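Q: What residues go here?
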């Protein structure tokens, strides 16, 4: 059985870039192929979950059969996500600390599950596709691994081991 990883991504950039990123991510099948780099297992639902769900934005327990593919755009939507797990709390804290409400800034939150490992090469590839967007990625796994990284222009910088 694969070790399950919960992946939380926060993206901050121009509204145009953030909208393009959201438009890309709302197609789970295509986005999963891209993020997997044909190396990683990405768990893909048929469609993103509704924001009205109580557990929207949360990956849940590792043994849970729910497959998250949750996207929230804008600080208002991000602040409405329930702080059920540490990944959500961390992303919300980063959003508050890193996001400035400049007229042209946009912000996006995305969470999904992967198997065997975090799709680090997929995240790097995504940041190269959106080079002006600052990405923060937090992942944790059922084996206890948890890491926070910053990614910009394909460069991966570990912020801290948590």
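A:
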């Amino acid at each position: 059985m694969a070790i399950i990883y919960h992946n939380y991504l926060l993206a901050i950039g121009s509204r145009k870039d953030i909208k393009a990123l959201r438009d890309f991510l709302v197609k789970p099948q295509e986005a999963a192929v891209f993020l997997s780099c044909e190396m990683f297992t990405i768990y893909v639902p048929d469609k993103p979950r509704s924001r009205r769900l109580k557990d929207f934005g949360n990956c849940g327990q590792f043994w849970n059969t729910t497959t998250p593919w949750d996207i929230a755009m804008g600080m208002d939507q991000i602040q409405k996500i329930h702080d059920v797990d540490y990944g959500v709390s961390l992303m919300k804290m980063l959003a508050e600390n890193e996001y400035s409400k400049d007229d042209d800034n946009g912000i996006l939150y995305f969470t999904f599950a992967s198997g065997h490992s975090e799709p680090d090469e997929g995240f790097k590839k995504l940041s190269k596709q959106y080079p002006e967007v600052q990405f923060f990625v937090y992942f944790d796994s059922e084996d206890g691994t948890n890491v926070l990284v910053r990614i910009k222009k394909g460069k991966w910088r570990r912020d801290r081991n948590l």
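A: Context that may help when evaluating the design: The helical segments are 15-25, 28-36, 75-79, 86-98, 120-129. The chain is about 30% helix and 30% strand.
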